[in-house]
Amino acid sequence: MGQRLSVEDALDFLFARTTGAFKFGLDRTLALLDALGNPHRRYPVIHVAGTNGKGSSLATAEALLLSRGLRVGKYTSPHLVDFRERILVDRVPIETRAVVEFVERQTPLVEQLGATFFEATTAMAFDAFAMAKVDVALIETGLGGRLDSTNVVDPVSAGVTSIGWDHMEYLGHTLETIASEKAGIFKPGRPAVIGEGNPDIRDLLRERAAAAGASPLVVAEEVVVDDVEVSAEGTHATIEMFGERERLRTPLIGKHQAHNLAFTLALLHAAGPRYRFSLREAREPLARVALPGRFHRAGRYLFDVAHNADGARVLADTLQQVAPARPVVAVFCALRDKEWEDMLTTLGGVVDGLVLTHAPTAPASRAWDLEIVRGFAARAGLRATIEPDFERAIRPGKEIATVVIAGSFHTVGDAMARLQVSPFAL
Fold this sequence. Notes:
There is one protein chain. The strands form three sheets. This protein has an eight-stranded mixed β-sheet with strand order 4-3-2-5-1-6-7-8, with helices on both faces. Strands 12-13-17-14-15-16 form a six-stranded mixed β-sheet. By secondary structure, it is α/β, with parallel strands linked by helices. The chain is built from 16 helices and 17 strands. The protein folds into two domains: 282 residues, Mur-like, catalytic domain (UDP-N-acetylmuramoyl-L-alanine:D-glutamate ligase); 123 residues, Protein-Tyrosine Phosphatase, Chain A (Alpha-Beta Complex), CATH 3.90.190. Strand 3 and strand 4 form a beta hairpin. The radius of gyration is 21 Å and the shape is globular.
């Protein structure tokens, strides 16, 4: 390439790969990994899919496994503020130099294959974990499961957290078809951990696991979650599994986080003795779980990515349980292909006002139309203000005690960047 790229140039090259038609399939990822010497085969992998709960579950697994002295890689998406959030080793983000070197080395092959942004980034993550000699890699699917570019791994444990309405244009228009796509990460002879609460969808995931030759472990049948208490300090729950019963606390806030914790403990249990935690062993390291952008407090601001209808319902429920200082205003921007009408109605019922805006990094092709939003808010009787200027939207008057920022990773990430809240500071 001649002159060394800047990190901005390297990221521009990667982000340019997000344009154009969406591409499913594993061939391009496999070709990239083959050129790198198949780094994804050099360490054990724990693989997670699902509509909601992936980030919380892997953040919990990360804290637990680090407490055991293991070197832990974690690959998640999307990022909030900094691309490097996606690729962590022992909670430290990939160095900018490593990003630049990967792009310089692999540009010809990426272009020749027509690889997408996510395919190139997935190969970069797997390569980084091999070079760091991780003991285990925690891998989150980007979209779906079966044809997601992370689905090239042979995991020691694979799990599906939950199934909801998301990415229907790619995954299908029924919960059953979405579940089938996400169940595509289940592998022959490997544990398949099922966190879904709906009995019908749970049974479908169990059938898909059995058809793949995987060994299903259904969390609802193996783990009892009782006496959940939610406060501003975290979530307490009594958990009973595999002959033990303990009262545990996670710093992650919300009733759903008790179930995410149960899912994670089952996922690690299924992965084998090296990764398994008794409930008593888990108690102390759980205090170190951290996840930016999920009911994440910083001064009067509360950030929550809540990017689909299920996420908005969970956020509304958690706001009611925690009861932050009032008045509460939600600054909200969703992508037009989400169920934003349901999301607005849900959140509008628990806050004192909505400020509806544009997130600067939201893709133009998916940006919502504020005039259409204005009309809906008026018809629905929502207490809503339209503020196209994002800077003004995120800085409401001092009389507002709590500012909730939600609706998408773009909305939360753009706000955190402008308010100088670091995703690495937790």
